[in-house]
Amino acid sequence: MKFLLPDKTVLVAVLKTKRDLEILRREHWYRIPVAHLPKRRFRYLAFYEPTRLAGTGGQIRYYAKVKARYTRRRVQLLPDESNHPRAADPYRRIRVGRIQKLRPPIRNTTPRRVSFGFTTHRRLRSVRDILELFAVAPTEKLVAKALKRAGIPVMAQHTVIIGHRRFRLDFALYCKRGSIAIECDNTRAHASVRQRALDARKDAVLHYHGWTVLRLSEQQILTDIGGCLARVHSAVRSLGKFAVFGVQSKKKV
After folding, report:
1. Distance, CA of 147 to CA of 126 (rounded, Å)
2. Which of 27, 30, 122, 141 is the most buried (most CB within 10 A)?
3. Of 133, 165, 191, at which residue does a domain stop?
4. Closest by CA position to 132, among listed 60, 182, 63, 190
5. Residues pairing with 81 in the sheet
6. Domain end call among 133, 157, 186
């Protein structure tokens, strides 16, 4: 495995609010809780703006070179938020240099949940899609094409509301006697112990409320898409064919 050189390593960080974006633009700094600070060294920061912030879909428009790092309490960085529950927690304040703009921006077209992640300066400057940025196989696109060719009417990026919890499904399929959730598990995104635990809890809640959950691994999708479709067909047969559904993107349970 080839290791990234520190001067070429880019940490992709998330701008959660408009205020974070304004701080970056005007004051040239970003903050990370020390408890969540990545261990790998990095020389650049790239900034992911989620849909609620960008307004046109999640994207990376800006990046900058790291100039300095300091540790401060959150309240020292944001004194007007002294009542924040993490006001006393230590944060790493990262000062950056000139804010550079990517033209065109890197889009989250799948879409995929984005948190901290590493990439290279070369890839940041050359790719146009989040999956390419992290060298993630386009498993959801491959499955979507296969399902369409097979005439299976799924709903992509479907949100299910169960009680006060919201679950995003890669694909949802409603049948006469039940519902099917199809999840595409990229190796990098689902390899950690924490993510596997989250996946298991999600599956348990869905199962409890009557869902059949099919998890397709990256290897299965890339090497045996026919076998993946066979699993979907088998689940459909057991649930009595497809039900009629509208174009809604959310369903309460």
Report:
1. 31
2. 30
3. 133
4. 60
5. none
6. 133
* Non-local CB neighbours of 165 within 8 Å, separated by 6+ positions: 205
Domain hosting residue 70, numbered range: 6-133
| 147 and 238 fall within a common domain | yes
pTM, 2 dp: 0.65
Instruction: Examine the domain organization and report whether 216 and 98 are in the same domain.
Output: no
d(CA 186, CA 244): 30
- pLDDT, tens digit, for every residue of 210-241? 999 999 999 999 999 999 999 999 999 999 87
- Encoded tokens for 125: 């400057």
Task: Judge whether residue 1 has pLDDT over 80.
Answer: no
- Residue 129 bridge partners (DSSP): 107
Angle at 236 between CA 163 and CA 111, to 5 degrees: 55
CATH number of the structural domain spanning residue 174: 3.40.960.10
